[in-house]
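Progress report, Aim 2. The chain analyzed during this reporting quarter is listed below.
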Amino acid sequence: AEMPLIDFAFKTTLPISIAAIIGMAIAHFFWQRYLDKKENISHEMLDVAEITTTAPAFYALLPFTPIIGVLIFDGKWGPQLHIITILVICMLLAAVLEFVRGFNTQNVFSGLEVAYRGMADAFAGVVMLLVAAGVFAQGLSTIGFIQSLISIATSFGSASIILMLVLVILTMLAAMTTGSGNAPFYAFVEMIPKLAHSSGINPAYLSIPMLQASNLGRTISPVSGVVVAVAGMAKISPFEVVKRTSVPVIVGLLIVIIATEIMVPGASSAVTGG
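Predicted structure tokens for the chain:
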């Protein structure tokens, strides 16, 4: 989106996300009540085994330290640090707290090893997605797909809104088909710089709705991991979960599109000042 991380995440994406979450929460409440009445479902309390842990309660705050670090080390309140540096500092902070709590270096390094392995697994998946996305985007460019998108959007007179809607629909359908929230976004976001510069559109105007559509799309995919997991825990069909999430997701996506149209300038000149 060619924007600083703070501006993109907190000043642009966050307000749009909050508006969508509020709208989805309201839609979720009324949609579930409607389906419950329609299917004559009565609520009952289920016995859930308590999760026992020896970790202090304040450890729940540690996952939020990278976000706090990004806000503090942005060059205004403190020295400007890269996100990778902030993550390393947060990991060291967690290791120090764990050592002070038990003075057991073996447990600390065992925990760090688990974290390293988790990072490696996640990194391997991201690298494969990025490589595949690059190949996919280059293929689309070679066959003229990007130029066709620009031509179609321009023919309607308002290139920005048409392009945004086309990319949102493509990303949403890909997320529903694959069940992944990352792969569709990585696949299509590679096209954004070329599309934006060719048609004079603000890259953030295109990428923010795509990001949200990718995340929302997997929640209405019967093959996504989260839907299958929820269906398994609730002992119902994944299609039943999709039916329950469909209307709130559609409402959220509409709010994202409307909020983007209102809050994010469509023309790149509005961002660059040209």
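The chain has twelve helices and no strands. Residues 270-274 have pLDDT under 50 and may be disordered. These observations will guide the mutagenesis work planned for the next reporting period.
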